[in-house]
Amino acid sequence: MNIRLRSPREIELMRVAGKLAADVLVMIEPHIQAGITTGELDDLCQDYIVNTQHAISACLGYHGYPKCVCISINEEVCHGIPGKRKLKEGDMLNIDVTVIKDDYYGDTSKMFVVGQTTPVNKRLIATTQEALYAALRVVRAGANLTDIGDTIQKIADRERFSIVREYCGHGISNQFHEEPTVLHYRNHDSLLLEAGMTFTIEPMINAGTWRTKLNKKNGWTVTTADKLGSAQFEHTILVTHDGCEVLTIRPEEEEAGVISRILHNVKDAAPAATQD
Ligand code: MF3
Ligand code: CO
Ligand code: CO
Fold first, then answer.
1. Residue-wise pLDDT tens for the chain (276 aa)?
2. Ligand 1 pocket residue status of 79, Cβ below 6 Å
3. 8 Å CB contact between 78 and 65
4. Exposure of 132 in the CB half-sphere (CA atoms within 13 A)
5. Which ranges of the chain does DSSP label H, i.e. alpha helix?
6. Residue in 25, 46, 49, 59 to alter for ligand 1 test, most ligand atoms within 8 A of Cβ
7. CATH fold group of domain 8-256
């Protein structure tokens, strides 16, 4: 595999696009309430991206995808199409936002809940977020792509949850989906990570079976085969010499102290001044 390393100029553009994608998730949060339709949430995102951010949605028109963002509720794994469905108390939902600004992409998603949800949904959401954060903490130049799947698998196994296999993270820069493919389960897809690579990590974790089913009517929406719940979180990252930079980090994550924008994952790193 020949994976392009990003130039300083490209990295700067990725930072801008990443921040815009994250900002959409921050903007939409207060609107997530029982009674609003997913189509209304989508309209708010589209208006914000176009008129406030002066950017565009990467999803709208992508292989014919009809909306601005993906909104996947409860047993929907990914690619839920916004429409007339109303959110109701107890729903959990993932909103996945990808924006393009000056030809560069930022791709991120998080889970929301409407009011209170079930204990198993709460555990599923917390586990998926923990798995993403743990994966971010093993990324560094010199680590292997397989370390990501390994890390996520351990956490899902501990909770007796399963990991979706057909949908993966991906390289991203001035294209939406490029090499490498990032598997979220234990695998042998080895690739030495290098500083300057940019890709997403976006585990989808299920309460029951890992098997999924594609909605043949709309051609997009993926649900769990057993209709049990599914959760997902996604960040776009840049591999650095001693860790990674989380290009789509939100202020709430830094404030909670769960991750920071710059992660130093090499414990015994030499002082920064002696490095590139
Ligand atoms: N944002 C999704 C991802 O993480 C892709 C959505 S493609 C769409 O890769 F067409 F469904 F929007
Ligand atoms: Co993605
Ligand atoms: Co995405």
1. 679 999 999 999 999 999 999 999 999 999 999 999 999 999 999 999 999 999 999 999 999 999 999 999 999 999 999 999 999 999 999 999 999 999 999 999 999 999 999 999 999 999 999 999 999 999 999 999 999 999 999 999 999 999 999 999 999 999 999 999 999 999 999 999 999 999 999 999 999 999 999 999 999 999 999 999 999 999 999 999 999 999 999 999 999 999 999 999 997 655 555 445
2. yes
3. no
4. 30
5. 8-28, 38-47, 119-136, 145-158, 251-255
6. 59
7. Creatine Amidinohydrolase (3.90.230)
Residue 153 Cα to ligand 1 middle (Å): 23
Cβ 70 under 6 angstroms from ligand 1 = yes
Closest atom, ligand 1, to C-alpha of 220: 11
What residue ranges do the domains of the chain occupy? 8-256
Please state whether the predicted TM-score (pTM) of the whole model is above 0.90: yes
Closest CA to 148 of 161, 163, 138: 138
